[in-house]
Amino acid sequence: MSLEDIQTRIRKAEAEAGRAKGSVRLIAVSKKQPNERVEAVLDQGHRVFGENRVQEAAAKWPEFREKFEGVELHLIGPLQTNKVRQAFDLCQYIHAVDRPKLAKTIARIAQEEGHCPGVFIQVNTGEEEQKAGILPSEADDFIKECEGLDLPVEGLMCIPPVEEEASLHFALLAKIAARNGLEGLSMGMSGDFEKAIALGATHVRVGSAIFGERNYE
Ligand SMILES: *Cc1c(COP(=O)(O)O)cnc(C)c1O
């Protein structure tokens, strides 16, 4: 696979779902990828990337930004409250807002800094113990709480359980978003982004299908 193949598949999935061309944003997930691979994708003109750790983002993106204009960085992984300020400096979007303490910290730092990254609320659609995210039954209240804190809530995000049919989770996330008047849906990864697009994804997070297998050393 390559960036171009994935873009082609996204455009095709948009068309098949009767959605406008370009309505899905491709977040190229560059976590744990060698810099040469990331730079190759930047060289091809892509500017929207995702990282799941603040520390890793801090280690590579300031330098890439000096070389390439217009980078848009999405933090897609769990965020500790003591890293929020650093996340503000590095990222334009935070995808895994999942608890009141984090929402309140983001709101406070937004006041202090005078700006705030766009926010996605992570929903634990599979109600998995080990997974981050607000439970579906608590999502409506938490969304209202975030909006009450004046966070710029773009939409919702989920990571379906690996052993279940992803479409059920994408449909659930879309339903929760719709009843709360939210448009953004961050869902779909290398193995299932076309299904996510069919169910309304506005942001797909694709890593290995673009860059190849991750380096876990
Ligand atoms: C790593 C990661 C992805 C990308 O996964 P691939 O299967 O490589 O496409 C997407 N979303 C999150 C939250 C991730 O941590």
Automatic annotation (TrEMBL):
Q: Which residues form the Alanine racemase N-terminal domain?
A: 3-214
- Domain of life assignment: Bacteria
Residues with PTM N6-(pyridoxal phosphate)lysine: 31
Q: Which SUPFAM superfamilies match?
A: PLP-binding barrel
What this protein needs as a cofactor is: pyridoxal 5'-phosphate
> Could you confirm whether the keyword Cell membrane appears in this record?
no
> What CDD domains does the record tag this protein with?
PLPDE_III_YBL036c_like
Enumerate the Pfam families for this protein.
Ala_racemase_N
* MF-aspect GO terms: pyridoxal phosphate binding
UniProt keyword annotations, A-Z: Pyridoxal phosphate
What's this chain's function?
A: Pyridoxal 5'-phosphate (PLP)-binding protein, which is involved in PLP homeostasis.
Report the family membership: Belongs to the pyridoxal phosphate-binding protein YggS/PROSC family.
Against HAMAP family, the record matches this protein to: PLP_homeostasis
Name of the protein in question: Pyridoxal phosphate homeostasis protein
